[in-house]
Amino acid sequence: MIIMKRIQLYAVAVSMLLASSCSKLDNYGAPDSALYGSILDIKTNELVEQDIINGTQIEFLEQGYENPISQYMVIKNDGTYRNNLVFSGAYDIRPVRGNCLPIDMQRIQVKGSTQLDFKVQPYIRVQNVSIQKIGTKVVATFNLEQTVAGKVKKIGLYAHPEPIVGEPVRTVAAEQQINTTTNINTVYRLEIDLPANASLKPGKEYFFRVGALIDVPEMKPNYAKAVRIVI
Question: How far apart are CA 84 and CA 58, in angstroms?
Fold first, then answer.
């Protein structure tokens, strides 16, 4: 009995010690700021469209620590980002692994609602886009303005019930491997044959989006805006 009582007292003491330690570790304020902004084309000032899955990310490192750890934010399809749970303080931040030329880290002081836009050079500008239902097909025509040396690997027309449509999120895709440098005057054409794709239901609404992929390390597609069509 004496041994059992000692064990019980020891267990209570350990529990009190752990509770005390946890209260000390959790004695921090909650995130009190928001960080938001846009990825903008440095030439056109238009949003640089993205993939929400495996697309460009925002890397940020909170300063004030000996070895700050990289954290990441996802960028929305339209090229904007937002994080409402950020601690006030200094951060080093940049977009990484994206569909634009890399840019340097920049330091920003985050306090309250803080906006930070990035001006970038996309690898490809998808321009003069027309996506229409013509008869039993959805037809896309467009031009490509390539901004870097190298080859454009492929082009694609993607369909999905949600506006997050893109290369990694599609119900149907019409892709073409081109493996060439492009000319702004060349008109590209891609088609999706509706009767040949049973997953596209007549009378239903779908989003269609054109993209092009440059052949560079960690390549990600560049896009035009998605277009909503009832087929």
Answer: 14
- Whether 4 has a pLDDT exceeding 60, the answer reads no
Are 191 and 134 in a shared domain? Answer: yes
**191: Cβ contacts below 8 Å, ≥ 6 apart:** 137, 138, 139, 140, 157, 174
* Cα dist from 49 to 101, 113, 222, whole Å: 14, 24, 7
Supply the pLDDT for residue 68. Answer: 86
Range of the domain at 87: 33-120
Three-class SS of residue 11?
helix
Write the CA distances from 158 to 35, 57, 62, 138, 175, integer angstroms: 31, 22, 38, 10, 8
What's the pLDDT score for residue 32?
Answer: 87
The pLDDT value given to residue 218: 83
State how far the Cα of 137 lies from the Cα of 200, in Å rounded to an integer. Answer: 11
Question: What does pTM read for this prediction?
Answer: 0.83
Dihedral pair phi/psi, residue 227, rounded to 5°: -120, 130
- Of 85, 120, 155, which closes a domain? 120
CATH number, domain at 111? 2.60.40.1120
All residues at 6 or more sequence positions from 43 whose CB lies less than 8 Å from its CB, including other chains: 121, 125
CA distance 159 to 169: 8
What's the number of domains the chain is made of? 2
Strands 137-146 and 124-134: antiparallel
Cβ 144 vs Cβ 126: under 8 Å:
yes
123 close to 97: Cβ distance less than 8 angstroms: no
User: 170, 175, 182: which is closest to 206 by C-alpha?
Assistant: 170
